[in-house]
Amino acid sequence: MTAAGRPRAVLVTGGAGFIGSNLVRWILEQDASVRVVNFDLLTYAGNLESVEDVEQRFGPEGERRYRFVHGDIRDFSQVAAALRLEGGADAVLHLAAESHVDRSIMGPGIFIDTNVRGTLVLLEACRAELDARPRPFRFVHVSTDEVYGSLGPADPPFTETTALAPNSPYSASKAGSDLLVRSYIGTFGFPAIITRCSNNYGPYQFPANLIPLMITRAVQDQPLPVYGDGMNVRDWLYVADHAEALWTVLLRGRIGSVYNIGGENQVPNLEMVRRLLALLGKPESLITFVKDRPGHDRRYAMDTGLIQAELGWRPRHDFVNGLEETVHWYLANESWWRRVLSDAYGIAEMYLS
Ligand code: NAD
Q1: DSSP-assigned letter for residue 61
Q2: Residue 243: CB within 6 Å of ligand 1?
Q3: 326 Cβ inside 6 Å of ligand 1
Q4: What is the DSSP letter of 112?
Q5: What predicted TM-score, i.e. pTM, was given to this entire model?
Q6: How many CA atoms lie within 13 A of 26 on its CB side?
Q7: What's the mean pLDDT in 20-36?
Q8: Measured in angstroms, how far is the CA atom of residue 238 from the centroid of ligand 1?
Q9: pLDDT (tens digit, 9 = 90+) per residue, 85-142?
Q10: Of 167, 215, 286, 347, which is most buried, counting CB atoms within 10 Å of its CB?
């Protein structure tokens, strides 16, 4: 950390994924003195093409403030080595995870292994590194609103003290990792902060998630699978706003705290799909209702009063513009998503089966 409390070297886990790639780019553009190590296993969800521009601008051939490390958070020695790069990380932003709810229903094991055991190994490697070379250090654990479960139509939004009540194997694994981090704070005085964010949207999102799935299918005039009655409500946040929130928490958040992050944009899925079709100039007849997801949470909404009052963060992007920009990005980057889709095995088709 600098005298002003800014990190010198940040280890980002999962930096080749959707949020991670946007975050790594945002940090390097934001702070000209910081170094970033992107540690990622490159699973089906990780994609080096999402950070190709970052590598060119900031990597070894550019400003030399960025490097990619192909590694697994479940491997202690790989994590330990990554923590010592760039003069030694003084901050960790932990995003690496299995993140897709439908996949967690088809196969929960990898979610527990990556999200719970992986977080444990990462915490242990950080502790060992800090024991060996004590230094100011901060760890931000990036979690989700889904750990709080589901809201009824009239329930107040989730606050940081809402009881955890996860309903999918994915959200259970994230809740498990949140509790592990909490226990490390309490037991070992580990300098961690937990963030819980609502649904993100924006560039580089894997096309199995609602918004890019609908855009990429609509562009190809394929049916758009909408679960159940389409009235499940999600709170949408533009991914750059999440990046700014994470950086703000890393710099100024209180160790041991939990911060909710959200967009205050509650939109039913069906309305979202209709908006996307309107932006793309495609007919609503493409909408196809499919059997609801088992355990499908009805509504999420976040109370973000704490992060607003304590750290002064609030979303900058308005939903209408953010959505328009996102649609344009997918239209302009067709080669990116076509390659991602061809690498992934029938991801979209699973919704229609
Ligand atoms: P993503 O699936 O796009 O990216 C996850 C990344 O983690 C991938 O690059 C993958 O290769 C990497 N990874 C997986 N297993 C790994 C391992 N064992 N070791 C190292 N790297 C590994 O996910 P995302 O949507 O970018 O989400 C990132 C984080 O933010 C996750 O922890 C997720 O729970 C959380 N989150 C996501 C959202 C959202 O709307 N997408 C909302 C709130 C919180």
Answers
A1: T
A2: no
A3: no
A4: I
A5: 0.96
A6: 20
A7: 98
A8: 16
A9: 999 999 999 999 999 999 999 999 999 999 999 999 999 999 999 999 999 999 999 9
A10: 215
Cα–Cα nearest to 262, from 307, 296, 298, 232 = 307
DSSP secondary structure, 285-313, as one string:
GGEEEEPPPTT---B--B--HHHHHHH--
Q: How far, in Å, from the CA of 346 to the mean position of ligand 1?
A: 20
Question: Are 232 and 299 in contact, with CB atoms under 8 Å apart?
Answer: yes
Q: Are strands 199-201 and 233-238 parallel, antiparallel or unpaired?
A: parallel
Smallest CA-to-CA distance from 23 within 286, 315, 244 is with: 244
Q: Would you state the pLDDT for residue 228? A: 95
What is the 8-class DSSP label of residue 163?
P
Q: Confirm or reject: Cβ of 79 under 6 Å from ligand 1.
A: no
pLDDT value for 50:
97
Amino acid identity, position 23: L
Take atom 13 of ligand 1 and give the residue whose Cα is closest: 96
DSSP for 168-234, written as a single string: SHHHHHHHHHHHHHHHHHHHH---EEEEEE-EEESTT--TTSHHHHHHHHHHTT--EEEETTS--EE
Among candidate residues 155, 174, 15, the one with its CA nearest the CA of residue 82: 15
Assess contact for 32 and 331: CB atoms under 8 A: no
Query: What's the angle, vertex CA 12, arms to CA 321 and CA 128, rounded to 5?
Result: 155
